[in-house]
Specification:
Layout lengths: L3 E6 L10 H9 L2 E6 L7 H6 L8 E5 L8 H21 L2 E6 L8 H12 L4 E5 L4 H9 L10 E5 L4 H8 L4 E5 L5 H10 L7 E4 L7 E4 L13 E4 L12
Length: about 240
């Protein structure tokens, strides 16, 4: 039988937001891989997984999760992580990889799956969708992501503030991921485009240190790296005005 690698989205941090299918996939796997930084601290994915599977079933694998400038180091870390998971697949029929959010949305799982496909011929790669940070923030803040014919634009601010400014100048809701280190530039871009008043941001969603605040309170102080922003468009047409 072919070995199976399953990317399981475990949501943004609140263990209650893992889907039933996600929990079943974690429990059905022979081992569950969780990504950790080289500093070794427990990440959100690992903390969430441990609510549903025993510690002895969890394998911690180091990824260069915070490496953006040194491509060679990042590639080496991906290769090493892929090699470790390939070893696990050689000994176990089913390996799950837990990732925060969704495995198909800005996830480390994408790079792992590409590596494993080359290292393990015939491997079956599957994904189980997870709740994203923008969905959780919308629920916790009361922000409406889309109405009627509005588009939805998701931007990682790690690509630079210019990408965010371009999105804010367009129609529909703009969601920004990983903007914490550029909070001052984000606040400026929101103000320039008339989006500051209705925008909200959040971090550590579902965790004890959770913060959900109006974007109008941004004062330029750096925020946690994994901060999420929702900037809705103006909705002046009343109920159904965007249909």
């Amino acid at each position: 039988m072919s070995s199976r690698l399953v990317g399981v989205g475990v949501g943004p941090g609140d263990p209650e937001l893992v889907t039933v299918k996600g929990v079943n996939a974690l429990r059905a796997a022979d081992v569950v891989v969780v990504p950790v930084m080289d500093t070794g601290e427990r990440g959100r994915a690992e903390a969430t997984v441990l609510h549903y599977v025993p510690q002895e079933k969890v394998v911690r694998v180091v990824f260069a999760l915070n490496e953006r400038s040194d491509r060679a180091r990042r590639e080496a870390a991906w290769d090493a992580a892929g090699g470790r998971v390939a070893e696990l697949l050689a000994r176990h029929g089913s390996v799950a990889f837990a990732t925060i959010g969704d495995p198909n949305v800005y996830s480390t799982f994408t790079y792992l799956a590409q590596t494993i496909a080359e290292l393990v011929p015939g491997v079956v790669v599957e994904t189980v969708p997870g709740i994203t940070a923008m969905q959780d923030l919308a629920a916790r803040s009361g922000a409406v992501l889309t109405e009627g014919t509005e588009p939805l634009t998701l931007v990682p601010v790690t690509a630079g503030s210019a990408v965010l400014k371009e999105a804010l100048a367009g129609p529909g809701t703009v969601v920004a991921y990983k903007f914490g280190r550029q909070a001052a530039e984000v606040a400026e871009a929101l103000a320039e485009n008339g989006r500051l008043q209705d925008a909200v941001w959040g971090s550590a969603l579902g965790l004890p240190e959770e913060s959900v605040r109006p974007a109008a309170e941004l004062d330029g102080t750096p925020l946690p790296y994994l901060s999420t922003l929702i900037a809705p468009p103006r909705r002046d047409g009343g109920r159904g005005g965007k249909l």
